[in-house]
Amino acid sequence: MNSKREKLYLEIESKSENESLARVIVSAFAARLDPTLEEVSDIKTAVSEAVTNSVIHGYEGNEGIIKIECEIEKNILFVNISDEGVGIADVKQAMQPLFSTKKDEERSGMGFSFMEIFMDELNVESESGKGTKIMMKKIIGGK
Q1: Can you name the residues that pair with 17 across neighbouring β-strands?
Q2: How many domains are contained in the chain?
Q3: Catalytic machinery residues
Q4: Is the confidence at residue 106, as pLDDT, over 60?
Q5: What average pLDDT does the segment 44-57 reach?
Q6: Domain span at residue 12?
Q7: Disulfide-capable partner of 140 in 33, 59, 68, 104 (CB 3.0 to 4.6 Å)?
Q8: Cα 9–63–103 angle (5° rounding)?
Q9: What is the CATH number of the domain that holds 75?
């Protein structure tokens, strides 16, 4: 396996139809690590949740850019997804299961919980009015 770091940079418009594009591109990038089908599914789910959060909560349906940065180092996939949307006032509260600012739109409030379950590490940085950055790590081939 190549010990050199490999990187992917992608910018997509904050449209819900770009969520599937993002998850396919990230999983295709991760494929060079020869992940199991379960690991690919985990990655796709986490990326879908992060991008959907940016579209619905970050930009609140308005136009904006979502940045996706991926890096492979040895058997580890790092995925950072960021926006310059409205940000999260209380990250700790937002990461609680079932918490949603869009309950009237039938949102489950499980996005961060799913990211946490399907990835090996999750960190969220956000500032009101400046946007949010979600940093995830997945170890391919076991923990």
Answers
A1: none
A2: 1
A3: 49, 53, 107
A4: no
A5: 94
A6: 6-139
A7: 33
A8: 105
A9: 3.30.565.10
